[in-house]
Amino acid sequence: MSTPNENPDLRIAQSITPKHIDEIAERLGLSRDDIEHYGKYKAKIPTSFIDEQKVKKGNMILVTAITPTPAGEGKTTVTVGLTDGLNHIGKQATAVLREPSLGPVFGMKGGATGGGYSQVVPMEDINLHFTGDFSAVEKANNLLSALINNNIYGRSRNLGIDPRTVRWRWAMDINDRSLRHIVTGLGGKQGGFLTESGFNITAASEVMAILCLSKDLNDLKQRMGTIYVGDTFSGQAIYARDLNAHGAMAALMKDAIKPNLVQTLEGNPAIIHGGPFANIAQGTNSIIATKTGLSLSDYIVTEAGFGADLGAEKFLNIKCRAAGISPKAVVLVATIRALKYHGGVPVKDVKTPNPDAVKKGTGNLDKHVENLKRFGLPVVVAINHFVADTDEEVKVVMDHCAEIGVPVQLSKGWEFGGKGTADLAREVVKAVEQSKGTYTPSYALEDSIKTKIEKIASHIYGAKSVTYTQNAEDVFKRVEQLGLQNLPVCMAKTQSSLSDNADYIGRPRDFGITVREVEIAAGAGFIIPITGKMLRMPGLPTIPAAESINIDENGQITGLF
Fold it and tell me: Of the CATH numbers 3.40.50.880, 1.10.8.60, 3.40.50.1970, 3.30.1510.10, which one belongs to the domain with range 133-252?
């Protein structure tokens, strides 16, 4: 069984007494009466503090990454460290992050609160139930599922929904592969109609997407009503509003829509809200959280999930478009171990020094830099430093970045907190001050759905072709019939490669991608093309992280990472 000493991140987090949340609120110009307290170290911020004029003037820094190894490359650690670094050099900065999902926490990847001396706290609360936002999303999602089934079962006032057309799935925030495809309605006549269904992980629920893209509670309710459920036997489209579901769903979200205020280990503000995955959803925190941060701070540092081909692409093409905002600069996180991995070194050997493999792996870095510059944004490379990194390996990356003309700094936030990211902070401020403050999207909303997909595939991934199954073609026709062809696309793709094949590491070339199926997320306001073997309900590894987590009689948690 794990002990606190076996995990340095948890040990460090538990060794520091956080400031009272009232002190953190004061740093944002908020009084104790302005916030809604969840104990001494957590609070919610009402949405009324968003100031659109301040939003326009604010400095937003986006943190993204190269294609990660299975363990991740520390974007959150860099995001938190950079926030502390900016405050260390005299800038008022706030971290704006996603909420962790219990899937990775209990699965393989672990929590998402940073690491070492660049963490947000209370680490245990944030990684577990936090303030209940994920629970509210799950309940709202499953309420709609129940209302759909009840309407199909009812005789006196059913809408004539054809169960074969219903693609709405249940949601749960735990990885369980056995729930991907299920049969409901067993138990005879009183058990409802026998139907095929399944679960998405809560982070991939359309309700989560709606939470993160809504402007306010009214907008959230309207979006809930616009959720496409399926069709009647006569072919009429049915939406959640036709089931009178959206009011109750929004009621369940009345507190969840408010962003959460916590702090870094150095006592700087951190706003955490929403948690869609970037490989199967839009991968960024809420518009409300981002605008709240921009309204209350001079600088915000925010992140987008997985590599820049996923999180950053969706952050810019979906979120920024919907919110009318743009980052001033982008920090691209790279690690020596990931570059070795993309240079052909097996994961088990990435701690062994290998400068040649680092050099070989820079092709992946180059592609992400090119992609971000294609958006018209200044890029700063941050090398997230690990103990096993050698000076020779670091020099390879430094020299390579000089060759391609992109600024680079070593990030040592894990070991030293804000002091370890001060140089990175200065470089980022320089990029912000030189920024035009606007970006160029990858596609026009007027483009066809296929054109949008193909522009992302060719320009961002580097694919030479896109193939569509008949299932996908059928959904495209329905998208046009519903008049939704001008929506953006939210690509579901493996995070392990620029392609849709996890085995294609580095910078793959001359590959094609396959769009296997397509989902319509009319409430969220995008179309979801699902590529390759991507699944919207992950499974647990052979040895789940949950097996190492425990709690003692005093409430002290161990084994959480």
Answer: 3.30.1510.10
